[in-house]
Amino acid sequence: MEPAGVRSAYRLLLRAVSASVLxxxxxxxxxxxxxxPLFDSAxxxxxxxxxxxxxxxxxDDAERWLSSWNTQLDATLQMLVSSAQNAGLANRLTxxxxxxxxxxxxxxxxxxxxxxxxxxxxxxxEQLTVNMRSARSSLAKRAATQKLARQGLxxxxxxxxxxxxxxxxxxxxxxxxxxxxxxIYPCSRPTPSDNx
Length: 196
Description:
Distance between the termini: 18 Å
Number of domains: 1
Number of strands: 2
Largest sheet: 2 strands, antiparallel
Strand content: under 5%
Shape: elongated
Order of helices and strands: HHHHHEE
Structural class: mainly alpha
Strand order of the largest sheet: 1-2
Oligomer: single chain
Helix content: over 70%
């Protein structure tokens, strides 16, 4: 598949994602953010395939990778079209995937912007000590909550990886928080381009 074919497939996927969630703006935005990294990994592979200066072994690897990726993308597009046409399992999957990603992103954004302690310049040293103690306990609770959330996301990551492996459907890749780089949505299995 040439770079133009990857671009064409990306545009097709954008339309299919929008139709699968009945053109809901928020869900379309969230699902497009999930599927974009799939194409970020495929586009360099397509350039390796057409670049005559690359060794033949690299081009053969890129061709095999793009062939399997194309098969998975076809299955993904079939699932998205099915989601747009029927209110069955595919529809529930895309809807829940968009809600899950959206909720996790919203929760992460709220956690990042919320302050631990509001500062008051007129506090006495005793009040400052008490408020700093409460801030430390609040930070400890927040760290425990983040640890629990990461453990839950790791379990979800395993389930998504198993679902992708058995069905051959791509369910998106990770989204990183813009401020912390912390994982908001679990990353599915690594792409072959990560190993090159």
